[in-house]
Automatic annotation (TrEMBL):
Residues 12-24 have a biased composition (Low complexity). InterPro entries: Asp23 (IPR005531). It comes from Gordonia polyisoprenivorans (strain DSM 44266 / VH2). Belongs to the asp23 family. This is Alkaline shock protein 23. Residues 1-39 are annotated as: Disordered. It comes from the Bacteria.
Amino acid sequence: MTDSTVTEKTKTTAAAATDTSEPTGKGLALARESGAPGDRGRTVIADAVVAKIAGIATREIDGVHDVGGAAERVVGKMREVLPGTSVSTTQGINVEVGEKQAAVDVSIVADFGVAIHQLAAAIRRNVINAIESMTGLEVTEVNVTVHDINFGDDDDDQTDTPPRVQ
């Protein structure tokens, strides 16, 4: 080979390696190395992870007494008593997670005196912000179901009454 042929091949190879407009051949390798989004693998976020984020974000809001429906709360109370178990952060939270989007259903018990529509809006905002900032998923909807209202000292009032049988 002559010097002009080697020089021409070097120029062609260098041009192909630096051209990222169409990532094919050696250009594809350079595009991946330069950190083009989505080219280096796939991230899968489990439903349980999104549910935990939503559960924690829901519990952060003032006015949420508990999370979950009646049956879920009973099971949750029993779990608290058993040694070696912890409170479930996903109690009362149902999620559906796709590749780019998530939908969330939240079940709560509200404190008495709280404006429920404002409470639901605050839960929605906090859940959406938490999930979108931590996972990059777009939250399409957050549905809030209020199953009950807590009146505060209901449990204390029952212990203050004298027993009916001595």
